[in-house]
Structure formats: C-alpha cells, structure tokens
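Suppose a colleague, Dr. K., hands you the sequence of a protein chain of 199 amino acids and asks what its three-dimensional shape might be. Before reaching for any lab equipment, you can write down a predicted structure in token form. Begin with the sequence itself:
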Amino acid sequence: MVGGLLALAAPALELVLARRVVVRSLMQWVGFGMILWAIATFDTDTAFPGPWAALPVFGAALVIAAGPTAPRFTPMYVGGIRPVQMVGDISYSIYLWHFPLFVLAPFVVGRELGSAERLLLIVISIGLAWLTSRYIEQPARSRLLNNFSLPKFFGVMAATIALFGLVALPLDRISGVLVAADRAVLAERAQLSCFGAGA
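The predicted structure, expressed as tokens, is then:
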C-alpha cells in the first residue's frame, strides 16, 4: 500500500525535490538509518510482522522517494554498485526462495542450523533466485505477457485461480485429516524452537 501511494505521489515529489539535493540526501540517510536500525535491533521478541514493520517500510519509502540521483556522501551511492543492483533486481525471487529453505532445512538435518549453514543457505537462495529470475520471470514478462490482450490476460488469470482452487480443496481436506490424526505429534513439535518468522 505504501509503495502504491508512493507511485501515485511520484510526479509531485519529483517537482518538490527537483533541486533540493540536501533534502534528498537527508531523506536517504534517515531512510537507510531506519532500515539499519530494524536490522540491528529486531529480534524474536519484536512484534514483527506487526506495528514495528512500519520502521523499515517507511525507511524504504523515504529512500525511494528521495530518488536515485545522489551525491557520493549519501548511502544511495552504495546502492548504485553493480552487485547491490543485481541483488535488488532479484530480491523478490530471493524472498520467495529463502523462506522455504530456512524453514525446511532444520527438519531435514534434524537440528538447528549453525552460522556457516545459514550463510550457505543464503548463497543457495541467491543462486536459485538468479536462475528463476533469468529463465522464468524475465522470459514470462518479456515474451509471454507482451502479446496478451486484456481479455486473454484476465481469462488466463481466472483459469489459474480456478485451477489453484480445485487443487486446494482436496489438500485442505487431507490436511484436516492429518491434523486430527497427528494432533499429539504436532503439539509436541509446537514446543520446539521456531524456524519461521520468529527465527
């Protein structure tokens, strides 16, 4: 929602901030500071996702609103370095890959992960994200969707939703049976360390 509002406000922001280099620089420093503060201080006791999510979200909004052009003394200069740009380009793919890897890996190895294993999973997440971005997402955007008419696009979208609905219904019933059968096991596992959002 914040991103959408920011996109709508972009033309007005560009007019207001056009020649205000100091203001843009300050926005970047404050925005990056908010993001770094969240990285450094958030832990399992932080209500996240929750109200504290506003800190990195509005920090990111400030950085984006300030725009890409900035003097060398602002953090945006670091954002222009090629490896950082590459990670930014595939960041959504990284987001999609890292979570299942980090959630499932402790169950696969049967224990909590060490620092080296977590770093390895980050590297694997980035590698898988680059592959899927390069060979699935980008071709889909450039070839598949470009030739779509609006009715055809919405037709495919409706068919996809219907397909997922048909698949989800039996899975929901199966999961209900499994939950009833394994309630004791699930209750025991619930006492273990959290490998999801809490981690």
